[in-house]
């Protein structure tokens, strides 16, 4: 199991690779300003999607981004 610090470092590295340093900092600032409930967001994001559909989308995403 990874530590909180390891997860934070890996997350920031992922953001930096995808968005670049400046936009990563902006993204983090936006999230800190906005009230954000991850559980509610997930409920809305996954509403009306079956586990099979979510899995299929994840596999397609992975193939596209390898």
Mean pLDDT: 88
Total strands: the figure is 0
Write down the secondary-structure element order. Answer: HHHH
**Poorly predicted tracts of residues:** none
Biggest pleated sheet: none
Q: What is the straight-line distance between the termini? A: 24 Å
What would you report as the Rg, rounded to the nearest angstrom? 15 Å
Q: How would the global form be characterised?
A: extended
Total domain units: 2
The helical percent reads over 70%
Structural class of the helix and strand makeup?
Answer: mainly alpha
User: What oligomeric arrangement do these chains adopt?
Assistant: single chain
Percentage beta strand: under 5%
What's the tally of helices? Answer: 4
How would you characterize the overall build of this protein?
The protein starts with a helix and ends with a helix. The longest helix is centred in the N-terminal third of the chain and has 16 residues, at 4-19. The chain is built from 4 helices and no strands. The chain is extended and about 35 Å long. It folds into 2 domains: 1-34, no CATH class; 37-66. The relative contact order is 0.06. The protein has 66 residues and is mostly helical. The protein has helices at residues 4-19, 21-33, 38-46, 51-64.
């Amino acid at each position: 199991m990874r530590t909180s610090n390891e997860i934070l470092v890996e997350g920031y590295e992922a953001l930096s690779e995808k968005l670049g340093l400046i936009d990563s900092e902006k993204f983090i600032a936006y999230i800190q300003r906005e009230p954000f409930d991850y559980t509610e967001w997930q409920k809305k994001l996954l509403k009306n999607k079956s586990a099979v559909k979510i899995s299929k989308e994840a596999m397609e995403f992975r193939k596209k981004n390898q």
